Recover the amino acids of this structure.
């Protein structure tokens, strides 16, 4: 009897495992995916970004001149460094700023690569870090910052001045309990002013004209009017490629596959991209940005939308697998390069993500200045959020419009596919989509388009204008 029960129990266990397996595989394909595949609002990494440092450009100096001036002024010669231990400084090393020889250099970090010149008092790094001749000073006490750490994309500079007001304020505002924890784990606390200097290989505003591998549209097996119809359904009305193909077949009697719809859209995107990316937009000094999510190869990717909040023009839309400072820099660069000259009180409005402040500091390092305002959270808890929330809502509306169009796609199979989709969306948003807050006008009015009777005709015209643009670029 016992034997039968235990055999039956094992049998039941096996059956229940099979049931769970089957339920999982059925649900994960359909309903589970529906529920869990919604773009989730992933929190960004919280990080304290301090104010911008004071950036000084170092002029080149001559150590012989400084030594001679010193002698004249004080009557004493500036002697080489007196060392108690044998020198760790290579004899070939000279000060990058004043050329002082190794006798005048201090090893600041005991062989870890930072040096101080006795003659001109500059600190420098082994890797000739000061080739750029920039000196970062603490905005609170004015002292030069010390290079603390070198990471892949950035260097961390720290104000080590123990009398710095930033440091003293942080120290004094700690509770007795916090001070206790600080003594045990000083690395858990950030008391010193810190600056992250991004040194990614990227020249801002180099204005590399957007080029794309154009496809010869005359090779497509559809008439220009049919192409215009396909784009109208697929882009303007946000229909999926399958719906578009079905509509073309059942309403217009034109037999095309959904893959052809995707191919046509991709070919058009490559043709219009240079035109919409290099178009001389008429912009204001009110710009805002936000990130949104899409799936590429079933992984979340980020789009960094930047829009002129008054003209309602999208001026930047890079896609990236990462939500990082590097992409924020590229997004801002694409937006800033749309300006002939950067307006004096240019204000950019973003959410509380620190990457935009870090990007702002990167541009300041290159002499490009603008203001960044952060609208944080959903309620107006601070005056900045209150003042700029209305502008932020403009980009949130753009995100909603985008998501309506994105949803039927179910994500993209390739990175290029996502770029093509976005390019067409931006072409539509900037040039073809009437905007209620612009009295029903499109953000960028092209007379060539507005005189045309319908949308397929406007798409055709936009494509031919883009092709004309590519031709003029090739001649130039
Ligand atoms: Zn020097
Ligand atoms: Zn300081």
């Amino acid at each position: 009897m016992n034997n039968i029960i235990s055999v039956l129990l094992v049998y039941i266990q096996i059956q229940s495992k099979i049931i769970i397996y089957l339920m999982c595989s059925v649900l994960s394909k359909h309903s589970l995916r529906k529920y869990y595949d919604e773009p989730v609002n992933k929190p960004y990494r919280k990080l304290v970004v301090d104010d911008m440092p004071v950036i000084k450009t170092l002029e080149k100096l001559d150590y012989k001149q400084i030594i001679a001036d010193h002698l004249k002024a004080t009557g004493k010669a500036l002697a080489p460094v007196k060392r108690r231990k044998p020198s760790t400084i290579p004899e070939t090393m000279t000060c990058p700023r004043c050329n002082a020889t190794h006798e005048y250099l201090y090893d600041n970090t005991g062989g870890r690569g930072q040096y101080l010149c006795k003659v001109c008092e500059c600190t420098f790094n082994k890797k000739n870090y000061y080739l750029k001749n920039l000196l970062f000073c603490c905005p609170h006490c004015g002292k030069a910052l010390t290079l603390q750490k070198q990471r892949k994309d950035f260097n961390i500079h720290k104000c080590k001045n123990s009398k710095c007001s930033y440091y003293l304020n942080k120290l004094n505002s700690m509770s007795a309990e916090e001070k206790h924890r600080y003594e045990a784990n000083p690395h858990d606390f950030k008391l010193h002013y810190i600056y992250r200097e991004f040194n990614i290989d990227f020249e801002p505003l180099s204005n590399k004209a957007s080029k794309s591998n154009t496809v010869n549209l005359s090779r497509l097996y559809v008439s220009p009017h049919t192409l215009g119809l396909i784009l109208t359904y697929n882009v303007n009305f946000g229909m999926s490629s399958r719906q578009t193909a079905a509509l073309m077949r059942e309403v217009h009697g034109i037999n095309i596959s959904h893959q052809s719809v995707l191919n046509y859209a991709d070919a058009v995107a490559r043709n219009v991209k240079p035109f919409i990316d290099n178009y001389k937009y008429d912009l204001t000094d009110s710009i805002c940005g936000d990130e949104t999510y899409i799936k590429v190869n079933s992984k979340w990717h980020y789009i960094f939308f930047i829009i002129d909040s008054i003209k309602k023009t999208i001026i930047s839309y890079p896609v990236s697998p990462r939500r990082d400072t590097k992409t924020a820099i590229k997004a801002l660069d694409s937006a800033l390069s749309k300006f002939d000259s950067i307006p004096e009180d240019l204000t950019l409005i973003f959410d509380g993500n620190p990457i935009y402040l870090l990007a702002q500091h990167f541009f300041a390092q290159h002499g490009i200045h603008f203001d960044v305002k952060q609208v944080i959270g959903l309620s107006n808890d601070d005056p900045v959020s209150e003042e700029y929330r209305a502008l932020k809502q403009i980009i949130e509306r753009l995100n909603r419009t985008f998501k309506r169009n994105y949803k039927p796609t179910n994500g993209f199979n390739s990175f290029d596919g996502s770029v093509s989709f976005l390019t067409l969306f931006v072409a539509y948003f900037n040039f073809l989509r009437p905007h209620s807050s612009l009295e029903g006008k499109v953000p960028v009015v092209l007379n060539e388009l507005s005189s045309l009777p319908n949308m397929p005709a406007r798409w055709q015209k936009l494509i031919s204008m883009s092709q004309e643009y590519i031709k003029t670029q090739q001649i130039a």
About this structure: Residues 138, 140-141, 143, 159, 161, 164, 166, 193 surround zinc ion (ligand 2) (CB under 6 Å). The chain has 14 helices and 14 strands. The radius of gyration is 30 Å. The first helix runs from residue 2 to 29.
